[in-house]
Design a protein that fits this description.
mainly alpha; 2 domains; 5-stranded mixed beta sheet; 62% helix
Amino acid sequence: MAYYLPYLQALPTGIHTWGQSDRLALAINFYDYGFYFFTPRTSTMDSIGGITGVEFPIQAYLAALGGLVFGRGSINTVLRLLDAAVVVLGFYYLFRVVYERTGHFVAGLVPGAFLLASPFFAFYAGSVMPDAFSLSLSFVGYYYWLRFFDERRFADLRWAVLLLALAGLVKTTTALHFGAVVGITLLWAYLEPALLLPKQRWQLLGWVGLGGGLIVAFFFHNQHLNEIYQSGQFLATTTPIQDPEQLHNVLQSVSRDWVAEYATPTHYRILVVCAVLLLVFLRPNLRRHLPLTLLLLASVAVAYIFVQLMGGQLGVHDYYLICSLVPPVLLLLLLALLNLGRYTGWGRYATSLGLGVLVVFLAVGGYKRLHRRMSDDYPPFSPYYTHLWMRGGAEELRRAGVPPTSGILIIDQGPNTGLVYFDRRGLAWNPQGPSAPTVDNFLDRMAADSLDYAVMSPSQYAQLAPQHAAFAAAFDFVGRVPAVVLRRRDRGRPW
């Protein structure tokens, strides 16, 4: 949690501010427009009423409820705290997976430190995105699933199924891992009938049906919302790579932009060592850790399936690999730690010292990298940040007397980024074309949705210099710093 204390009150920032703002807008609009869980909405009027289909928005809903207790201004902080808290919970259960099987305290700390040192995981773990939240819930589910095979208590299996189903609701990618766990369990029960009593078999099928049914039902519910309310804010379809040219472009983007964000050179070296240890301890793993070994193989298959289904997005979205590729990586690491943790005597002292140094190195390096990634100067990505000028926007509108219920038209690409920063509903507009938009273009766009104010950065307004006289005739200036804020005079303009 100490990693994220400096950033708990920060609005969406850094890489993928667009996606972060979409998620925060869900929580804000739950609070502002009633806690209607099954009709979530964001701040943009791109869809009817802002209503949109989105994966099970439990984080946003809980953060909005937190706003009832701590005030509306706390929603962003509560959402970040909630994400970070669930990530810490996941780390705790990863620790228990290792410690309860080896008694090696230091080895149990390695998985959490390993993840916190990953630039992209650490960044999203303390943000408002659902990926690290869902992954961490799956870690808890893995713990109970593995404990079921150790102790043969059906209650553990039930908890595993429910937790993995919840994780799959929060992030559809994790539903693939839910399916992997269910498949392994059912196959094992078929090959070893003594694993489950006849009554427990039916109970397992019932819980699996409930979890899987909820995932499928919510998916179709989202499709229904998107169709009825004409929304496309959240991706709800597969995007496979279509041809060799696209494959080349995706691989080029991943190697250029994301390989160093997924992991550091230390991570990649650790994974090479873990792969070697997997081969060295292959027979002991099949004897002592068969469920975990099978889950590793299944998670590799899940990662492959995910890349086939969503490969077209990997060049632009680093966080897509959190719920797809991180599970096999973590399971590979867990197997290595379980084997190293078995040593006693001088071997235990040596591994404690070596792993202790590694934990400290990863934790310190991870914090420094997180601080860099959260800063405004993080090349090669920061030159493309479009939200920096928006800071202080909500306060500017408050000082200017702009009513909280007034709609705004903001010049930006992200549908909710500017609306979150200026704390208003409205539309984001990114005019395209060979020539700059005219005053009439602005007025027509605003009249269509009864928007009262236009908001843009000073640099954007400067680019419209030939039309400043026309803007002065059609608008009143109500703000200039940090944004140029214009109020249209003719509220009766038809569209």
